[in-house]
Amino acid sequence: MDIFFVYAIKSINRNYIYVGLTNNPDRRLNQHNKGLSKTTKPYAPFERMYLEKVGTREQARSREKYLKSGAGKEFLKSLL
What we know:
single chain, GIY-YIG endonuclease, globular
């Protein structure tokens, strides 16, 4: 069974934060930085600003939804 992570990455050059989930945070950050994700390609390069280990994919999806909400975005901005 995979362990999932919820992550937030911050564009180094622009004012942009992306939240996602993965079972391999290092591989996923590399994919974002290589421009392999259509959503984040224009904002590369990125640095990881938040990483949270979560149990199942369902739990990770729930946490991801929270971090994309207004309250979740405020929490992420408070980390900057």
